[in-house]
Amino acid sequence: MKKKGFIFDLDGVIVDTAKYHYRAWKKLADQLGFKFTHKHNELLKGVSRKRSLEILLAIGKISASDEQKEYWMHSKNQEYLKYIRKMTAEEILPDVPKVLNFLNSNNQPIALGSASKNAEEILTRVGLLKDFKTLVDGTHVSKAKPDPEVFLKGAALLGIKPQNCVVFEDASAGIEAAKAAGMTAIGIGKSSNLPGADYVFSDFTEISTDFIAQL
Ligand code: B16
Ligand code: MG
Fold it and tell me: What is the pLDDT of residue 15?
């Protein structure tokens, strides 16, 4: 198998942390006195914490000082961490270990490319940290997806040219970022939500190792 770089998004690809983000943001919305629905939560997928708060406050038609926003982001994250700290390997999405093991046993380097500042904690909790050669997360990037920064940094750290990298993403902004980086973009989810992806699968159970080997 030809050497390539493989870059995985975290939330929606490796684990489903969107439900925990939802509960934590909903608690804040409840305190602020407005409704925050599952449909609203879709708008926050793949988006940074700061941008998520801005979207949430726009839904509630609330304006606030930067200091107040910092405080709300901190308290939301404290609430989110309560859920994260209870995560186990059982929450890894189906067949993700199959793909990671296949890549590692074929000496294909793997990076994480996530917007989350909690990425290392999550991978540690579910026992997958050892599978990654490098992590690029929300603590390392200044420009959020759809900017390609997160994936270009991942490629550089893997020492693989962007055109030889493959990205797995569940968010449309992430697919856009991967394509802007000149990479092969594999969407995980519904093709109607992931325009521009080179391939789309509903989850890793649909991705065979033969398919990965011929990429
Ligand atoms: P945190 P990903 C993203 O993860 C989530 O999809 C998004 O909903 C969240 O706001 C963002 O991480 C930041 O997360 O508050 O933990 O820094 O999909 O890029 O892996
Ligand atoms: Mg995601």
Answer: 98
Contacts of 24 (CB under 8 A, 6+ apart): 76, 77, 79, 80, 83
pTM: 0.95
Q: Relative to the CA of 117, which ligand 1 atom is closest?
A: 17
Please name each of the domains of the chain with its CATH number: 5-16+89-214 (3.40.50.1000), 18-84 (1.10.150.240)
pLDDT at 171: 93
pLDDT in tens, 130-179: 999 999 999 999 999 999 999 999 999 999 999 999 999 999 999 999 99
Residues with CB under 6 A from ligand 1: 9-12, 21, 44-49, 52, 77, 114-118, 138, 171
User: What ranges make up the beta strands (E) of 46-183?
Assistant: 110-113, 134-136, 165-169
Ligand nearest to the CA of 116: 1
- Hey, whose CA ends up nearest to atom 15 of ligand 1? 49
- Catalytic residue flag (residue 16): no
Q: Is 198 a catalytic residue?
A: no
Quick: pLDDT tens for 103-123: 999 999 999 999 999 999 999
- With 0-12 / 13-18 / 19 or more C-beta atoms within 10 angstroms meaning exposed / middle / buried, residue 140 is middle
